[in-house]
Design the sequence.
């Protein structure tokens, strides 16, 4: 644990300290989970309620968080997640169709960024005719946080032209579904009721849930999957084992989540004086829990720098958080990654890193962000001449 002036708070790195903080929401508030910049005047008309993250589960404390989480859980059922598997497969296959015969691609631009975006567009209810660039939502969402690089005039204009329009569409679509519900996720959120008698979600709250899904659900999967693939393609022995036994994919995914979490950490704020690890955290002080460091705590994960899909406790990683704010989209993310990895291995024979693409230990071109850094590209090649027409 240490103080960091750049963050303006204490940074916690040990697994047990981080779990203690994340499982104590009465003392550690989520209201400043990410710190948002003031909305620039040029964007005020697009963001009348401020940053959409302020209305998402991620930044709420109880009792409001508990109410919205219970209602959202009514829509995010295991059955609805399972029903999305053929949708994920269809989207992934359609994307692979567009570049399979080329024998090379920037897989980030042409596949891993597109798959979660198109899936979230499906979940949100947008059709292919909806003239909105959902790929911009995640980058724009995080660009309006303090941990991102400074905003330029051009960047502000981009955010307004793209994400401002998306936010306006979301409000209008929620109202449309409120008047005419269907068999879709948005309608399920609107119609969700709980045995506890929680008040139904308002339009602002539904948009808050949806905007959080679009940001976290697109960005995290888009940039985690290349890191998983980069590791597999750099380890020929593991790659062959996975190809031969697809049952290994699930534990491989969990180990990759431990080592390459898409979200590096999150912020909490102490509501009262509290002691963690023998150190006093005064009331009103921010703490940053460094999830990726907890995933490498050798008191929990022996030989943490070794990639092993045979870890008996591999699923104890904190990459989806812990406690009441555990990622509601974790089952969907695992589904997307599993389906995508199977299809890429099936349809791209001889899949390998482009020689210009560094391996796991090499330098990688990133867009910096304290919480969710973004890869700029992921180049791969495969043997197009060996493609089978029956797959």
Sequence:
């Amino acid at each position: 644990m240490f103080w960091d002036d750049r963050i303006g708070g204490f940074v916690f790195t040990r697994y047990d300290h981080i779990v203690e903080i994340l499982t104590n929401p009465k003392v550690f508030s989520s209201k400043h989970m990410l710190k948002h910049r003031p909305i620039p005047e040029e964007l005020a008309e697009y963001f009348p309620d401020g940053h959409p993250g302020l209305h998402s589960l991620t930044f709420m404390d109880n009792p409001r968080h508990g109410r919205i989480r219970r209602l959202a859980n009514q829509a995010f059922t295991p059955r609805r997640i399972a029903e999305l598997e053929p949708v994920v497969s269809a989207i992934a296959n359609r994307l692979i169709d567009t570049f399979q015969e080329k024998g090379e691609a920037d897989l980030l631009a042409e596949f891993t960024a597109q798959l979660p975006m198109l899936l979230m567009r499906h979940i949100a209810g947008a059709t292919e005719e909806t003239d909105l660039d959902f790929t911009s939502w995640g980058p724009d969402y995080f660009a309006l946080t303090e941990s991102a690089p400074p905003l330029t005039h051009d960047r502000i204009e981009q955010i307004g032209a793209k994400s401002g329009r998306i936010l306006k569409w979301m409000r209008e679509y929620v109202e449309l579904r409120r008047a005419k519900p269907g068999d879709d996720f948005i309608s399920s959120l609107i119609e969700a009721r709980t045995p506890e008698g929680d008040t139904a979600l308002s339009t602002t709250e539904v948009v808050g849930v949806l905007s959080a899904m679009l940001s976290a659900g697109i960005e995290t999967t888009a940039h985690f999957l290349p890191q998983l693939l980069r590791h597999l393609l750099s380890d020929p022995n593991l790659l062959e084992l996975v190809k031969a036994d697809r049952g290994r994919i699930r534990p491989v995914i969990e180990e990759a989540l431990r080592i390459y979490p898409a979200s590096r950490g999150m912020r909490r704020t102490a509501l009262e004086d509290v002691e963690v690890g023998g150190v006093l955290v005064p009331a009103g002080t921010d703490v940053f829990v460094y999830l990726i460091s907890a995933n490498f705590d050798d008191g929990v994960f022996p030989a943490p720098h070794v990639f092993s899909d045979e870890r008996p406790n591999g699923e104890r990683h904190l990459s989806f958080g812990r406690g009441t704010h555990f990622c509601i989209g974790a089952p969907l993310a695992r589904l997307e990654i599993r389906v995508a990895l199977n299809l890429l291995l099936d349809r791209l024979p001889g899949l390998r890193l482009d020689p210009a693409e560094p391996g796991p230990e090499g330098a990688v071109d990133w867009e910096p962000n304290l919480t969710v850094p973004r890869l700029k590209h992921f180049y791969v090649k495969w043997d197009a001449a060996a493609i089978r027409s029956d797959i």
